[in-house]
Structure formats: structure tokens, C-alpha cells
Design goal:
heterotrimer, A alpha/beta (404), B mainly alpha (88), C alpha/beta (342), A: 404 residues, alpha/beta, Peroxisomal Thiolase, Chain A, domain 1, 2 domains, 5-stranded mixed beta sheet, 12 helices, B: 88 residues, mainly alpha, Non-ribosomal Peptide Synthetase Peptidyl Carrier Protein, Chain A, 4 helices, 55% helix, 0% strand
């Protein structure tokens, strides 16, 4: 088996505030329909001040779709819905192959733990233990892996907001290593009071709808959701009834090593990640047709990421946008949700817009795309950067199965 | 209204506690020393902690982290800000 | 694959202490003996660090110093629970203060990749950095990733660690699952006829090197782990040995993860009575307690054993040259590590 074999995207699945499946997400992206609004489901004192991008379905409705009890963490329910869609889209029978499930999340079953905690704080003997059995990040993954019947390789990655980009390239690497044939890779995160309040202490939550890459951006809106891609080896790709059209051609993880939360002004980590991913894919910056930005809408991220792009692309800027202007920042799920969007951009020949841009950033020599653009997309660069300086970039490329 | 000198002393103690500057004593911090980068060497997370301190101890709410940049230039500017805004 | 250096912050002060007179614990848990952190961590960084972050950072720094490597090509970390103290602090205050007046530090530090991130920050290391949080196979996943990167030619050296801590509240919750003996004693934990084990914690880091360098501790000949395997563990062990062409007789010492919970002893006994029947065996959890990333402690101990030729708890030095570690956390995550002297 060739070490440099092509790792194809066999299927995709997504659930977010803008839709419960791939078709609904695509429809919202095309029609410019954002998912943030006043908090509906999450119970928080910040209900009236902090808009969020919630998935429209209740836990009960998600559980019915996922085929899981509605008592498990919402994080697992979202994960199961999107992972099942991805597998169905690939039309693959996982049990026939050496299959892995690599999932990411940032706070595991915290949605249940934070409901358990008030009672527990009053009396250490009280509280339903069923609410904390899935507290660990890995427990959320296992609920879904077991529901999918995947056990050849199961793991969980947690590197804050870059988590699920890391899951995706790990899957590709394990296929190239010849260890696995199929990997369902991505990530999930449900909204929790823990993360909402955490980001609120950092004073980077926008009380209005976020405006990534705007000169007057005020911060991010949190979102929730899950996204998965089914990565397949060349051998598996050849057996699929729906021929793959896209491959994961490049990836890189690098560390900013500047500050626990803030990005360096030069965007060192972002630049290294993008450069490394391009090198892996064998592409020059000029070959990139679209950049799906990390683009959270915070002062710090957007100038650091923008500066790194300005350095790398040197005047030849491909169209770029932040789809977080639709979905909000879905943390551990964002890299994977945006990976699904990257695949859709190639399939549909679309550059998705950044919403609500009013004033382009003065310190950057480029601006994000604000209208839906139809054009041939061959290579998409997708950025995901997280706390702890964790920076990851992925490259998705149009790739026909012509050599098989 | 309290004496500014007393406020400055108390602020130093509160800052050492809130920011866990365990190797520092109040007398190590000059009233006009810059708090960020040089001087105390604080960073953006400390600025957020100081915002919490202002709210918790003095009931003063800053709107944004940027606003903190001016307020937290030194212990002296922070004390002035508190005297100006306390109880309003 | 070589383990160039290794260091563990654990309930045992050092490997020498483990040999001379291991620290004993009574009750339901073992607690780490923490080193003098000022040797390893800049005071400006340390003020925000909770115990697990300090333990992890110190273990990593000591490991790198011993290997005389200042910039590993890869940093991977495994932790099942993450930074519990910071998570607890933020969550408790959020509940008690009704989502108001929260301070950011605990939230920031509660992120699961904080240990790996702080190490990168201390080293100014821009290289690959990843964190695995998969219960009883968190450390194994971190190791798998690092070995993979070395195999791909992306790295020559990799810093790999496993870290987990006990805090009061997590211990109170886990105790309600009937996991621990109430009046345990490490002196006779293993073989105790009752149910339950003793909780443990620790931070162990390793510097892997694709090549054998001077001062190298051990050769990592083979490593494998499973998720809820459907075949019996005896078969897994037998297949592992066959795949790597290792006759059972060539193994000088087996280190098992038996933890004193009589309910699960039979799984380890099955292996000792069949595939590895003639191999002398010791256990390690009386030294570090039971926790999801305890195999990292066992790997450290095994590396020290093949490197020094000395075995904790053994009357005479048998100088094992080849050691197999077999852990099976909660009977769901079996893992095997085969090491030899180098």
C-alpha cells in the first residue's frame, strides 16, 4: 500500500443551528440564513443579552433521530445524528472494513454535569449519578461509537476550538499508515452554561450577531452542532456506489506558543499551520480557490489570522469567508462542520459568504466575500485555531477516482 | 470617601491576591509602575481578572476589555478610576 | 522506537524510593509527591497553574532535561479527566454566584489541552501538539499518535505524556460508583479478597526517539491497545506475542495492572495462568493507585527496570532484560507494552 495514497471523503454529515442535515445546511448557506437568535433552549441568566446559535431540535427529537435515550448528553445526541448521516451518505457498511471513529469535543457531557452540580454541592450524596456517567469527553464518543458499532479504533481529541480538524487529519493519517480503511472523523459540542460563562469572562462574546473580519467586530457568538466526514482509502473508495469527488490532500498542526488564549500578533501558529498544510498537499498558495476562515469575530483572532494570510498569500488572495457568521462558533465541532462546508463548496462550486460585514478591516490588504459566488472550486483551505495556541489547517481537493 | 493612600494600599493587596502574585508584596509595587508588559508584567488574562476585581470589590462594571487598558495603566490610575466611579 | 528518557510525578518520590522503600498509603487513595516546581517552571507561569498542570509540566521538563533535548518534534498528551481542579473551581463558582462575577483563569486553564499547551509555551515549541481524552486509552492514543508521526517520518523525537489528578469532588463522585475500598492499604492491596481498589493519580512523560541515543532507557519493541475487544484477553496477548515473534519464554518479567479489586482479578490471572504461565510477574497499582492513565506510570516503571536491572519489591535483583506491561483498565481498554534493555 502506498504511503501517499489518496484519502477520499466518502460521505458527510452535519447538524448545526442552520440545519439538521447536510441539505438544510447547504440551503441556509446558499440563501444567507444565519442561525443565531435569542437563547431558546439553554437555561442561563444571560438569556436576554447573549445571542447563540442553537440547533433547533430538542433532546427528545435528537434522541429519536439518533436512536439513543434522550437522557444522554446533548453532545452525544448531536454527534450521533451527524455521524449517522455521514455513514449513510457514504453508503458504507462499516463492519466490512477496519473502521475507526475519531471524535472531538471540548467539554464532554458538561450539559448534564452542570445540571447535576447544584444538588451535589448542597449534599455530596445527592444527584442522579446517571447524569455524570458521560461527563468525560471520551464517554460522549463511546456512546456514539457503540451505537454505530465501531470498535477497531475509537478515540477522542480535545484541543479546544481546533479539536475536530485534528480528528480529521488523524483519520487520514491512520488510513495512510495502513492501519484503518475507513474513519468516521469529526467533532461535536452542545451549548453549555459552562462554556457560555467561560467565554463571557473573556469578554469576547458579541451581544449582537457577530461580524467576523469587520473593522468594528465585537466578538463571537457561541453555537452548537456536530460534523463528520467519512474518510476512506483508495481501495474502499473504489467500492462505493457514489463515487468520491474530493480528498483530504493536506493538513498540519502547529503551535503558536505565544499565550494560553491570545494569538500572536504575527499569527505565527496560523501561518505555520497553513504553510504546512499546503506543503503536505503539494500545492502553492495560488492553487487555493477558497479559504474557510477560522474567523471567530474576535479582535484578536481575526487580525492574527488575517495577518498570517496576508503573509502567506502575498497579494494574491483567494475568496474567503467565515461560516461562523452562520453557525456561530461551535468549538470542538467547528473544524468538522467547516470541513463539511469545504466539501460542499467543491461539490457545488460555491464560495459561501461572510454575513453582516460592514467595514473591512483597515489593517488587512483583503476583505472577506460577502455574496454567494458561483465558481469552480478545486482546493479549499480550512482553518481552525484553538486555546493553547493549537492551530490546524486542512486542505480539501477535488479528486476524481480516475486512477483506479 | 476614603483616603486615596489607603485605597492604593488595599488595591495592592487585592491585586496580589486576585492575580496570585505570590512572590510580590504590596511595597514591591510602585504606585506609578506600569502594570502590563514591563513593571508587574501582567497580560490580557490579568486585565480580565482586574475587571472582575473592580466589579466584585467596588461594584464598578467595565464595558469592554479595551476600556481596561487605560484604567489599569498603574495602581494610581486604577485608584483614581475607582474614586471617580465608586457608588455611581 | 526508543524511550530516551522518562519521568513520573507519582505517589512515589522516585524510582530509588520505589526500590528502597516504597511509599505506603492507607485509606481509599494515593496522592502524588510533588517535586520542587521552581526547578522547572517560571514563576510568572506557575501562578496560574493548578496541580495537574504543574505535575505535567514538571514531569515533561525533567524528562527533556534528562534527554538533553530542548525542542521535541512532537508533543502529545493523554488525560481522561483533564484539568479537574480548574473545571471544578469554575463550575462551583458559576453555580454559587449564579453565573455572575466569574473570573476567567479557571475557565481558561480547564481546557483539556492545557498541559500540552503550557509545555509548548514554556519551550516556545511551535511543533505538532495534540491531546487525547479517551478514558482508559487516553495515554495509549497519545502514544499511538506519536509513534505514527515518527513512522511517517514527520518526527524524530516525541514528548508523550499521561496525566490525571484526583480532586475532592471527583473522588466523592467516583466513590459513589463503588470503585474504592474504604480502608485500603497499599501494603496488601493486591490479592485482597474484597471488592474495590484505591484511587491514584500521576503525570508521566517520555521522550521517544526513532534512534538509539547514548543514555537511552529502553527500547519500546511493540505496543498495542484495544477498545472493548470481543475476544478474550488471553487471545489478544497470544496474538500480540505471535505477531511480534516473541516467545513467552523470552520475557523476563510481566507487570500487570491488577488493582486489588477481587471482582476483576480473574482477567489478569487468566493471562498469567495460560500464555504467560512461566513468566515472573509483579503488579504496579500498589505504587500509583488506579486511574485511567496509570499505564503511563507502568511504562515509566518498566523503562526504569530494564534500564537499571532492578525490580521494585523483588528480593534479589533479577536484572530483567525484556519486560511486558499488561493493563486492562475497567476490562474495557486492554493495552500491552513490550520493552527491552538497550
Amino acid at each position: 500500500m502506498s504511503k501517499e495514497q489518496t484519502v477520499y471523503i466518502g460521505g458527510i454529515g452535519v447538524i448545526s443551528a442552520i440545519g439538521n442535515n447536510v441539505a438544510e445546511n447547504l440551503d441556509a448557506l446558499v440563501s444567507g440564513r444565519a442561525g443565531m437568535q435569542a437563547m431558546q433552549r439553554l437555561q442561563s441568566v444571560h438569556k436576554d443579552t447573549l445571542p447563540v446559535a442553537e440547533v433547533a431540535l430538542s433532546n427528545e427529537a435528537l434522541a429519536a433521530r439518533a436512536g439513543l435515550p434522550d437522557t444522554v448528553s446533548r453532545t452525544a445526541l448531536l454527534s450521533a445524528v451527524a455521524a449517522k448521516e455521514a455513514i449513510a451518505d457514504a453508503g458504507i457498511e462499516c463492519s466490512k472494513w477496519r473502521t475507526g471513529f475519531i471524535s472531538a469535543n471540548s467539554v464532554g457531557g458538561m450539559d448534564k454535569t452542570e445540571d447535576f452540580f447544584p444538588g451535589f454541592l448542597e449534599d455530596a450524596g445527592s444527584g442522579d449519578l446517571k447524569m455524570v456517567v458521560n461527563h468525560e469527553c471520551g464517554a460522549v464518543t463511546e456512546v456514539v461509537a457503540d451505537a454505530l458499532g465501531i470498535k477497531d479504533f475509537v478515540t477522542t481529541i480535545s484541543t479546544a476550538c481546533s479539536s475536530s480538524a485534528n480528528s480529521i487529519f488523524l483519520g487520514a493519517r491512520m488510513i495512510r499508515q495502513g492501519v484503518l480503511d475507513v474513519v468516521v472523523a469529526g467533532g461535536t459540542d452542545a451549548l453549555t452554561r459552562f462554556t457560555l460563562n467561560g467565554f463571557n469572562t473573556l469578554m469576547i462574546l458579541d451581544q449582537e450577531y457577530c461580524q467576523p473580519f469587520d473593522e468594528n467586530r465585537r466578538g463571537l457568538n457561541l453555537g452548537e452542532g456536530a460534523g463528520y466526514v467519512v474518510l476512506v482509502s483508495e481501495e474502499v473508495a473504489a467500492t462505493l456506489s457514489k463515487k468520491p469527488f474530493c480528498a483530504l490532500s493536506g493538513w498540519c498542526n502547529a503551535n503558536d506558543a505565544y499565550h494560553q488564549t491570545a494569538s500572536s500578533p504575527t499569527g505565527t501558529g496560523s501561518l505555520l499551520a497553513m504553510k504546512g498544510a499546503l506543503k503536505k498537499s503539494g500545492l502553492s498558495p495560488a492553487a487555493i480557490s477558497y479559504i474557510n476562515l477560522h474567523g471567530t469575530g474576535t479582535q484578536n483572532n481575526d487580525i492574527a489570522e488575517g495577518t498570517a494570510i496576508a503573509t502567506l498569500f502575498e497579494g494574491n488572495y483567494p475568496p474567503m469567508s467565515s461560516t461562523k457568521s452562520f453557525t456561530g462558533h461551535t468549538l470542538g465541532a467547528s473544524g468538522a462542520i467547516e470541513a463539511v462546508y469545504a466539501v460542499l463548496a467543491i461539490r457545488e462550486g460555491l464560495v459561501f459568504p461572510s454575513l453582516r460585514l460592514q467595514t473591512p478591516m483597515k489593517d488587512l490588504p483583503f476583505s472577506v466575500t460577502t455574496v454567494l459566488e458561483k465558481r469552480q472550486i478545486d482546493h479549499v483551505l480550512s482553518n481552525s485555531f484553538g486555546f493553547g495556541g493549537n492551530c490546524s489547517s486542512l486542505v480539501f481537493s477535488r479528486a476524481a477516482l480516475n486512477h483506479l | 470617601m476614603e483616603n486615596k493612600q489607603e485605597l492604593v494600599q488595599r488595591l495592592k493587596e487585592q491585586i496580589i491576591k486576585q492575580l496570585k502574585l505570590e512572590d510580590k508584596k504590596p511595597e514591591d509595587i510602585g504606585d506609578h509602575d506600569p502594570m502590563f508588559v514591563e513593571g508587574l508584567g501582567l497580560d490580557s488574562i490579568d486585565a480580565l481578572e482586574l475587571i472582575v476585581l473592580l466589579q466584585q470589590e467596588y461594584n464598578i462594571k467595565l464595558k469592554s476589555a479595551e476600556e481596561g487598558q487605560d484604567v489599569f495603566r498603574s495602581i494610581d490610575t486604577m485608584a483614581d478610576y475607582i474614586l471617580e466611579h465608586e457608588g455611581k | 522506537m526508543y524511550i530516551q528518557s522518562a519521568y513520573a510525578v507519582s505517589p512515589q518520590g522516585s524510582f530509588n524510593e520505589l526500590l528502597e522503600s516504597s511509599a505506603q498509603y492507607r485509606g481509599d487513595r494515593l496522592t502524588c509527591k510533588e517535586p520542587d516546581y521552581s526547578k522547572y517552571i517560571d514563576p510568572k507561569l506557575i501562578r496560574r497553574m493548578s496541580r495537574i498542570i504543574k505535575m505535567g509540566a514538571a514531569a515533561a521538563m525533567e524528562c527533556l532535561q534528562q534527554a538533553n533535548v530542548s525542542m521535541p518534534d512532537v508533543i502529545t498528551t493523554g488525560t481522561a479527566y483533564g484539568c479537574l481542579a480548574d473545571t471544578d473551581q469554575f463550575l462551583t463558582r458559576m453555580v454559587e454566584f449564579k453565573e455572575e462575577l466569574l473570573s476567567p483563569t479557571a475557565f481558561i486553564q480547564s481546557t483539556h489541552n492545557t498541559v500540552g499547551a503550557q509545555i509548548a509555551l514554556m519551550l516556545k515549541c511551535h511543533h505538532y501538539n495534540n491531546t487525547y481524552v479517551h478514558r482508559g486509552s487516553s495515554f495509549e492514543a497519545a502514544l499511538t499518535d506519536a509513534i505514527g508521526l515518527i513512522g511517517e517520518g514527520e518526527a524524530k523525537t516525541a514528548l508523550v505524556g499521561g496525566v490525571d489528578e484526583i480532586i475532592e469532588k471527583s473522588h466523592a463522585i467516583l466513590s459513589r460508583f463503588d470503585l474504592y475500598k474504604k480502608d485500603g492499604d497499599t501494603a496488601n492491596l493486591i490479592g485482597d479478597p474484597g471488592k474495590g481498589t484505591m484511587a491514584g493519580e500521576g503525570a508521566a512523560f517520555f521522550l521517544l526517539n526513532s534512534q538509539r541515543e547514548a543514555g537511552c532507557l529502553a527500547k519500546l519493541e511493540a505496543f498495542q491497545n484495544w477498545y472493548k475487544p470481543s475476544v478474550p484477553v488471553t487471545t489478544l496477548v497470544a496474538n500480540f506475542l505471535k505477531r511480534h515473534q516473541v516467545p513467552a519464554g523470552s520475557i523476563d518479567l510481566l507487570i500487570t495492572g491488577a488493582n486489588g479489586d477481587a471482582r476483576y482479578n480473574s482477567l489478569y490471572e487468566a493471562v498469567q495462568q495460560s500464555v504467560l504461565s512461566a513468566v515472573p510477574a509483579i503488579t504496579y497499582k500498589q505504587f500509583c493507585g488506579e486511574y485511567p492513565t496509570s499505564a503511563a506510570f507502568a511504562l515509566w516503571m518498566a523503562a526504569m527496570i530494564v534500564s537499571t536491572g532492578r525490580v521494585p519489591g523483588a528480593a534479589e535483583p533479577a536484572a530483567p532484560k525484556r519486560v511486558l506491561v499488561f493493563n486492562n483498565y475497567k476490562q474495557l481498554y486492554p493495552s500491552l507494552y513490550l520493552l527491552s534493555a538497550c
